[in-house]
Specification:
2 domains; 1 helix; 20 strands
Length: 254
């Protein structure tokens, strides 16, 4: 009888300590909804629908761009008639490289991005279909492109979450991590070259809101809800101005 009473006393604490957020989750890269439009002609590269939008000389030199958390210069190099190389740096350190390769028939574009901001390189490969031709005399990469498939290396797609009555924590295999208490204060994301801060709100046992900011400015608000069954987290991501909203799911891993 004493054993049974002890188990009954402990069971509420045990169930309370288990959060549906706890575990390892896999992120699947979402395809952009709008096409990207490139123009490489007369020594200049222009891009709309990109992050960020660019207008820069394509002469193989580092050029200053509006400073962002992860880059302050961009280098555009024409490799050949079908290939372009982009190099983004921050204070001289290479942060991203991207190779854009157009198929011989000009109908397909493969983009391979290498993210070297972390301890391990993260790769993202995106395949695009042409939806508008390049202007006469422009490089083959020019025109409008719609992405139809993307693959991200697993080391850049995994996060481990832990939720308690007091805080929410996240960690990736690359070393980025944070532990934000539910007190409205900002907490640093460790090992993040963008120096992101995170605050957390517990909306319900299966719903959390995370707000990211840099230099005191909100850059993203993410609402995460564990779906019935506990195998998926549905995410609604808004940018700081609330102008764009992206939704995607995280899948729980064994």
């Amino acid at each position: 009888m004493k054993r049974l009473i002890l188990l009954l006393l402990l069971s509420p604490a045990i169930s309370f300590s288990q959060s549906p957020f706890d575990g390892t989750w896999l992120f699947t890269v979402q395809l952009p909804t709008e096409p990207a439009v490139y123009l490489l002609a007369k020594g200049m590269f222009r891009c709309s629908g990109c992050l960020p939008n660019l207008e820069i000389e394509a002469d193989g030199n580092d050029h200053k761009v509006a400073e962002a958390p992860y880059w302050d210069t961009v280098n555009v190099q024409i490799v050949d008639a079908h290939t372009v190389l982009f190099i983004a740096k921050k204070t001289g350190k290479t942060m991203f490289t991207e190779v854009d390769a157009v198929s011989p028939d000009g109908a397909a574009l493969t983009q391979l991005v290498k993210d070297t901001t972390e301890s391990e390189t993260v790769t993202v490969e995106t395949r695009n279909r042409r939806i508008a031709k390049a202007p006469p005399g422009a490089h083959a990469v020019s025109g409008s492109w719609r992405a139809y498939r993307t693959n991200r290396s697993r080391n850049g797609s995994i996060s481990q979450y832990k939720c308690t009555p007091d805080s929410f924590s996240a960690e990736t295999p690359l070393g980025e991590k944070f532990n934000a208490k539910f007190d409205g204060k900002d907490y640093p994301v460790e090992d993040d070259p963008g120096h992101t801060m995170v605050s957390a709100r517990l909306l319900s046992p299966d719903e959390v809101e995370l707000t990211s900011n840099r230099n005191g400015k909100v850059v993203a608000i993410k609402q995460m809800s564990v779906m019935p069954g506990g195998r998926l987290i549905h995410v609604v991501l808004k940018n700081g101005e609330g102008e764009t909203v992206t939704t995607f799911d995280l899948k729980k891993q064994p």
